[in-house]
Amino acid sequence: MQLDHVTLVTPDLEGARRFFCDIAGLENGPRPPFSVGGYWLYSSGLDARPIVHLVEATMPGARPARVAPRFDHVALRVAPGDEWQALLARLVAHDVPYQVADVPLTNERQLFVALAPGVVVEFVTAAR
Description:
single chain; 8 strands; 2,3-Dihydroxybiphenyl 1,2-Dioxygenase, domain 1; alpha/beta
């Protein structure tokens, strides 16, 4: 089993698209003609597929807030070296605040971005 995609319902559809395309490096691609606005954002490379689905929140606040259970964040793996450095450069260029943490047992580095209240995106790579 593997993760197929993550869906984010957001009132800031364009802001989310810009973040995932301009910062995370995903590409906007074909999406079925659903009755609600949105984007399918694709990974790059030979196995390009839509891994982030963005859906326009058409009725903000219509549902009562749900506390638990919930997903805390989505994590995207980034190759170490040039790809990681390019991500850092895009974050700085777009003035996106982030936090970095090292994971000693796995020898990985994590980077967290608060995309919106309650929506966190993690990027993870092998530490040097």
